[in-house]
Amino acid sequence: MAISTRVFDYEIDGETFEGFLAAPAHTPAPAVLIVHAWGGRSDFEDGKAKKLAALGLTGVAIDLYGKGKRGQTKEECQALMTPFVEDRPALQQRLLANIEMMKSQPEANAAKTGAIGFCFGGLCALDIARTGADLAGVVSFHGLLGAPGNTASAIKAKVLALHGWDDPMAPPSDVVALGEEMTKAKADWQLVGFGNTMHAFTNPDADDPGFGTVYSADADRRSWTAMKAFFDEVFA
Q1: Could you say which of 1.20.1420.30, 2.60.120.920, 3.40.50.1820, 3.40.720.10 is the CATH number of the domain covering 3-234?
Q2: End-to-end CA distance of the chain, in Å?
Q3: 1 has pLDDT over 80
Q4: Are 189 and 183 in contact (CB under 8 A)?
Q5: pTM
Q6: Is 27 exposed, middle or buried (0-12, 13-18, 19+ CB in 10 A)?
Q7: What is the mean pLDDT of the chain?
């Protein structure tokens, strides 16, 4: 399928951000926000936007940190992510502003929207749903799972969490807590756990067992297939 791509600047609260959009030939199409891992928007997220466009969806890879703000080392990435993890309401407001930005793009069908995220971005995808935002669905890939403490009483977006069972950053106790949280909020939720799989299983560059990040080709393929089936359903 032929796709088009563009890099674009946008503003939120007077700050400039840089996004990447990939769209199929026929637009507007159902639009999916792509939230980056802890290092900021990269070729990884842009590649996912292209893969979504190949499925007939408009993919919008966003930037939470600000144009040009990227982490290279673990310490730099942690420093960028920590303020958002420590102030989840502020994170949620920025995410919702990005949803509105995505809806305003001419390639996006504003009536059919979703979000996906990876690692820190997986937490962000869940936090979008936790606000009660009116999206069709969100997908968390090996996301951090801890609740922000302000989950809406009724979650509207359907939720799919794709989780490596051996992920040290989201232990089984967090998985159980997520299920209880989603059930309390009356969410339509699904959880897929991949055995013998650690954090960052979709990232081919992840190869640090001591840190808990290891790529898994099987989990990568299976999780994308699960996401595709999920969006086929929620955008039908």
Answers
A1: 3.40.50.1820
A2: 20
A3: no
A4: yes
A5: 0.97
A6: middle
A7: 97
